[in-house]
């Protein structure tokens, strides 16, 4: 009976998210009881939503992670021991396995993943990011060929898929990013029509240049100054999908939103959504997404950190914008 | 061939809306040509939306009123001369007749109104206010029995009907008003469950007291500080219907809206709407509204100004909140 490593959350963040909030512990590897199985994780996913799970705020849509417990995360791995009728040793499985090398589970929320799908693709496209992009774009954004879509966090795991799906649907797609490298990637590799670098561009002028006919769909992943600039350019009957507000996850003083007059004048729809409400249709969303992937219309890049302990510093990359592609940890 | 009086818009407002923006003119009464008829107006409706029609802003959902032309308004009156096959002398008709004693029309947008319906009721309930309330509440607000609804401008022409319809549907209804007199009216006469006087109450504390389980539907007629207080109390899957922003119609520096984080956390829907998009289903909306009126569930009060010239100072009552009930001018 061996041991494995896990990382507990031990402190709430107060503005900075780094290793000081966590503690590495060593645990004894358990034996699965009846109806349980043991997963050896291969990759853990790091997602912006995790920062929300760590806060003291209890007024959220998903329970916070309690101090002294394993940090919550999704991941992919292999079943290495099983007393569960539906999961066999050798199965590739995805689930909320947390920041640990081994996870014991009764199968709740665990899905098998075809072993032909590489784990990096599974986490980048068919897990939370791809499901979020698909649900948000098609469930709330009502994209129509010929319209203009702006997506913030456009080089991120959700935004990059939103933009590619919208391109495939015939929309003009503008991405908001935080570096010229990311701007180049979404234009040259992903086929976006244009990019705004919010750190250096004059936001309004650049949007006027790239979206001269205004904006029909805004997919909001970040909040911050770009929000006002896009909002002011929304067309009549425009739709805004509010998916993430990364600029405010760690802010003590969230900045105000735009005045609502334009909501009336342009009869805008603004819809907030989070994936936990829609996880029951994960299979349906994966089926919707698969043909785009098969046609080569959805590319991804994985930003892979090495080793369990790298997770502790990894989340801060979302705040600095230094992640390049879907962030994950290889164990 | 006699003459009649009309009021032209001659100046754009810069913060204040009063008689200085208008000019009374005398016109020769025309004879209706083929396909036309002449209406002698009995009452003109004054509505908050008219302030939007007067601004220099051309980026609106309805064309602005050009300087030197008759101020736009809806009204009710009697056909006094007709060369139109569908309208006969003596018919009671409602339409966009403008600020004038007589109106020549080809019938576009003009509806006949059963002469059993008093003109004050027609303008208060079956015209713009009632249609707006019905479309906004049922088309965007998705009210469900047992839920809590907050409506701002609750003693106004739209808000008072929204609240009464919601009460009839079994919701808990809280109205936001600007005087104790209005608070008493909506509670004692209209049957609201509670009232917030935004001019004197501690908005947050009062809302916590009146809506202890939070707010499911917010019907926004005013903007201003109440917006943030209600927004912060919206429940999961709450709906916000943005119908009016009277606090900002004449403001040079509209105040910002709330930060959007709550839109995600509570998966809120925010829908802007204006009646011109829905006027094609006016008949359907009137039919939806009629049974509530017949059952005595929709009461109204008319605030009647006397004489054409009183319109020029009348709109400012919306800004001071001194109107009591549906504002209209008797000619």
TrEMBL record, chains A, B:
SMART domains: PKS_ER. Keywords: Oxidoreductase. Pfam families: ADH_N_2 (PF16884), ADH_zinc_N (PF00107). GO terms for molecular function: oxidoreductase activity, acting on the CH-CH group of donors, NAD or NADP as acceptor. Gene3D superfamilies: Medium-chain alcohol dehydrogenases, catalytic domain, NAD(P)-binding Rossmann-like Domain. Residues 15-329 form the Enoyl reductase (ER) domain. InterPro entries: ADH-like_C, ADH_N_2, ER, GroES-like_sf, MDR_fam, NAD(P)-bd_dom_sf. This is NADP-dependent oxidoreductase.
């Amino acid at each position: 009976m061996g041991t494995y490593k896990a990382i507990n959350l031990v402190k709430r963040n107060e503005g900075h998210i780094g290793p000081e909030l966590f503690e590495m512990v060593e645990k004894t590897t358990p034996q699965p009881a009846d109806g349980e199985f043991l997963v050896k994780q291969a990759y853990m996913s790091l997602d912006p939503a995790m920062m929300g799970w760590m806060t003291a705020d209890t007024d959220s849509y998903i329970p916070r992670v309690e101090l002294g417990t394993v940090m919550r995360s999704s991941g992919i791995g292999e079943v290495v021991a099983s007393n569960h009728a539906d999961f066999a040793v050798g199965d590739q499985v995805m689930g909320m396995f947390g920041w640990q090398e081994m996870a014991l589970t009764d199968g709740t929320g665990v899905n098998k993943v075809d072993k032909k799908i590489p784990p990096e693709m599974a986490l980048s496209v068919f897990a939370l990011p791809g499901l979020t992009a698909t649900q948000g774009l098609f469930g709330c954004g009502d994209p129509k060929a010929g319209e203009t879509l702006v997506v913030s966090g456009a080089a991120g795991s959700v935004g990059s898929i939103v933009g590619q799906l919208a391109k495939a649907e015939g929309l003009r797609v503008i991405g908001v990013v935080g570096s010229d490298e990311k701007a180049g990637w979404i234009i040259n590799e992903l086929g976006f029509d244009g990019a705004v670098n919010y750190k250096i561009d004059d936001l309004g002028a650049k949007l006027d240049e790239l979206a001269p006919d205004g904006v029909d769909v805004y997919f909001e992943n970040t909040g911050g100054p770009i929000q006002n600039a896009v909002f002011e350019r929304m067309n009549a009957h425009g739709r805004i999908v509010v998916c993430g507000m990364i600029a405010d996850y760690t802010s003590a003083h969230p900045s105000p939103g735009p005045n609502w007059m334009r909501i009336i004048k342009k009869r805008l729809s603004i819809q907030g959504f989070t994936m936990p409400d829609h996880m029951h249709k994960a299979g349906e969303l994966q089926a919707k997404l698969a043909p785009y992937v098969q046609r080569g219309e959805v590319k991804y890049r994985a930003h892979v950190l090495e080793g369990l302990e790298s997770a502790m510093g990894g989340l801060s990359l979302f705040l600095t914008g230094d992640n390049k592609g879907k962030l994950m940890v290889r164990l």
